[in-house]
Amino acid sequence: MIYRPYDSERDEKAVIRIWQECGWPDLKKSKKNRVAFRDWVSCGTADVVEFRGEAESLVTSHPGSITMLDTALSFQAVTSVTVGRPMRRMGGAGELTAMVVSRAAEEGFAVSGLGIFDQGFYDKLGFGNFPYSRTVTVDPLTLIVPELKRPPIRLTKKDISRMIENTSSRFNHHGLVKIPPEGFMRLMVEQSDDCFGLGFEDNDGRLSHHLWAKSNGPHGPYEVWWMVYRDYEGLIELLSLIRNLGDQVNSFKFREPWGIQIQDLVKRPFRTRDISTGGEFATSVSAESTKQARILNMGKVLSALRLPAGKIRFNLDMIDPIEDFLPVGSAWRGLGGEWIVTLDEESSGAVRGSDGELPVMRTSVNALTRLVFGAATPRWLSATGEIQAPADLVCRLDEVLRLPVPDMVQIF
What we know:
This protein has helices at about 10-20, 30-40, 90-105, 160-165, 180-190, 230-245, 270-275, 300-305, 365-375, 380-385, 390-400; strands at about 1-5, 45-50, 55-70, 70-85, 110-115, 130, 135-140, 155, 175-180, 195-200, 205-215, 220-230, 250-255, 285-290, 290-295, 310-320, 335-345, 350, 360-365, 385-390. By secondary structure, the chain is α+β, with helices and mostly antiparallel strands. The protein folds into 3 domains: about 1-130, Gcn5-related N-acetyltransferase (GNAT) (Aminopeptidase, 3-Layer(aba) Sandwich), CATH 3.40.630; about 135-290, Gcn5-related N-acetyltransferase (GNAT) (Aminopeptidase, 3-Layer(aba) Sandwich); about 295-400, Nonspecific Lipid-transfer Protein, Chain A (2-Layer Sandwich). α2 runs antiparallel to α5 (about 180-190) and α4 crosses α5. The mean pLDDT is about 90.
């Protein structure tokens, strides 16, 4: 196996085949999809595993940021890991992904993240689960929101630049990932013949908030691919817009926005669920954890973690499983080893070493990432054995790490 950068002229035909074998968007039949794919790849980096003269695995990554409380940290999004049928379970894709993550660490990125197809595969590279995200399906006529006071504007594929610009001012929150949207939105829009957009403008004619949705027949279920808004007032107006479509559309499916429970805005949710269960337009709420992240730079991440509840210092004995996947000559070997960690209200941090007077926590970078982002509580991680530490240290961390729920949301 040979690991090397992606070469579009040499590898595009093989990558099109790989995507077909993975069930990803069809690049072979659609010229527009191929153009959008090229734009998407050009916004980041792409690497392949070559086997018998052809690319048999593609890993792409894109730069961006992730919000830690009120600080934007540099973020590497591993945006795709695709493997051709001959290379399945051969280890090449895992090693290539580890190299891509290692390169991001060497370039100074603070955090890496990705979406998972199932649990356990990327844990081997130090990634840990972020909390559940919820997908809701609602009858739009049951939404308890104000009457829509103005008509929306129609958005089509020709408005992609306006939609991209709108994302620059989107609602910010703990855990939000921002990646330059040009390639992503173009790729998604170009492959969506049954989609439409609706939105609202500022007085200067710029988009202030909008949605993009797939229509699945005259009565739905309509599937909202994204909603972009600056504040909750904008979100509520988009929900009012969804309700206005309810005379014809029986159900809408969308990702529940950060910080809210859609049940607060639904009339008789349990009655509606019971009546619709088993039908084509059944209302529901489902939850799953599909995003993972890992720390690449301890100093950068912990410096953004300002905690008002006081100071804690402890020794950290950490395991980083990515080391087993890295080539011998890799300059970055992961974050395993001994650290002295300080969590403080002004500035937290970590330095290599140990202090014999401090308590010791033993854990992995997977669990530490979840801990410091608030994706899992200290007591839970202790109960499951993902961290080992004195009980008083665990209790103190549980008092101090009262963080908002992180949500990595849509990757663009």
